[in-house]
Amino acid sequence: MPNSSTRLESPLLGEPYLLTPGPLTTSAKVKQAMLRDWGSWDSEFRALTLEMRTSLLELTGDTKGELDCVPMQGSGSFSVEAMLASFVPRDGKVLVLSNGAYGQRIAQTLVYLNRDHTVMDKGDYIPPRGDEVTAALEIDSSISHVVVVHCETSSGILNPVKEISDAVDACGRKLLVDSMSAFGAIPLDINEVNYVAMVSSANKCIEGVPGFGFIIAKKDELEAAKGRSHSLSLDIHAQWTHMNKTGQWRFTPPTHVMVAFVEALRAHKAEGGVAGRGGRYTKNRDVVVEGMRELGFETLLKDRWLSPIIVTFFCPAHKSFCFDKFYALLKAKGFIIYPGKLTVVASFRIGCIGHMDEHVMRKVVAAAKEALAEMGVDSAVPPEKALVERAKLAA
Ligand SMILES: *Cc1c(COP(=O)(O)O)cnc(C)c1O
Q1: pLDDT tens string 65-76
Q2: Which one of 217, 249, 270 terminates a domain?
């Protein structure tokens, strides 16, 4: 694990840092891995596919060999869709815990899949709690599955997945987790959070490039998924059985992306796995939150709910502040930030994930300070209504 004196190398000359939740800044080694062409049937490529699946399973805490890993072509949403279609029976019913854009997307996917569902809509960022889940399951015995987003990337909130898993277990239902933006940096131990399946993708905390996702699921659930999917290409059971039999992906794999991802997984391991990666991101977050607060910015979330993945800040109330200008000034200084997604007040987001460390985050804060000065904004304090909004969130 790098200590604070060793710096990670910078992006290539002239390339800005991506302070975004994936695609994100990747290392030179990951990029270099993409310079070679691979035959998808070749034994070396098959061995790399196996290494990838095995390395991912090592991050789950599964000591009994209950889980297996199935990669799936496409962006992360393809894997979410594949998971919902493969693990929820056609006569099942899903409780979607939604507190942001990704929860909403899950509900929308279930509409397309024609799966019965009900949405517990907590708005932009209020976390769903265990007791609420228990209450919802007790009044509706037809709910077979609960879906939760681990880190809701639209606000950056870290949802209480352990509490939710306990509630789902106690009611004898099944849990599916969208851990897209958390897996690899925030523990998701199968002995703690009892999911039947979870998904993540190549371009988030493992620090690969975009092109595929992966599903980690209980083997008995993978068996039971046979014939359930509405989609040929997204059929997880079919991909799983084919891969186990032949070592190959069912259809053309994103070869370069896969090989880069294996390189990223090796770096993840060398950094100390989930604890090492999560430690670096936590430091990134702490440095950027502290520095931005010193400038007068306020976070949407109270500390307890802040994830080490991405942080939402309110835009300053100052009349000279303009987000587009702020964005352009930061970009010129080498940092790409992310617009906010709140419906009530103006906000922006700064990602803490990717191949960067606390030294970079200090430069981000310095760049934000300069950008404010260049816009003639002498106070980054948010409008009163932002603080009123935030007060809705329990400590
Ligand atoms: C990134 C992400 C996804 C997938 O988004 P894609 O654009 O399809 O890759 C899904 N859920 C969460 C929480 C995410 O952060």
Answers
A1: 999 999 999 999
A2: 270
